[in-house]
Amino acid sequence: MLFRIPTGVRAWIEDVWWTNRHAERRRRGAEPRGTASRREEGAVTVDLTSRPSREAANRLYKRLGFVERDTNVYRYEL
Predict the structure, then answer these.
(1) Rounded distance, CA 23 to CA 35, Å?
(2) Tens-of-pLDDT digits for all 78 residues of the chain?
(3) What DSSP character marks residue 68?
């Protein structure tokens, strides 16, 4: 998903999933799928979230170049 804010175009990744088919790409250090096209569309960042309990996923995101942000996430349930 792309969205515009005053500081530029941002991208958000939802529902990340990996299959065995992606294992070779991960080992080669491939860029996360879709980030190149987001750059071409003008995005300056790509964000995603992951629960701390998903330790393997969090290690993967860091290996792929994602940087953990120091932030608070708040949710208001309706």
Answers:
(1) 18
(2) 788 888 888 887 876 766 656 666 666 666 666 677 777 788 888 888 888 998 988 898 888 888 999 988 888 998
(3) -
CA 10 to chain CA mean position, Å:
11
Rounded CA separation 40/38 (Å): 5
DSSP for 15-40, please give it: S----GGGHHHHHTTPPPTTHHHHHH
- Please check whether residue 21 is in contact with residue 60, taking contact to mean a CB–CB distance below 8 angstroms: no
How far, in Å, are 3, 19, 27, 46 from residue 49 at the CA level?
A: 16, 19, 22, 11
- Residue spans of the domains in the chain: they are 2-63
CB 48 within 8 A of CB 16: yes
CA 60 to chain centre: 11
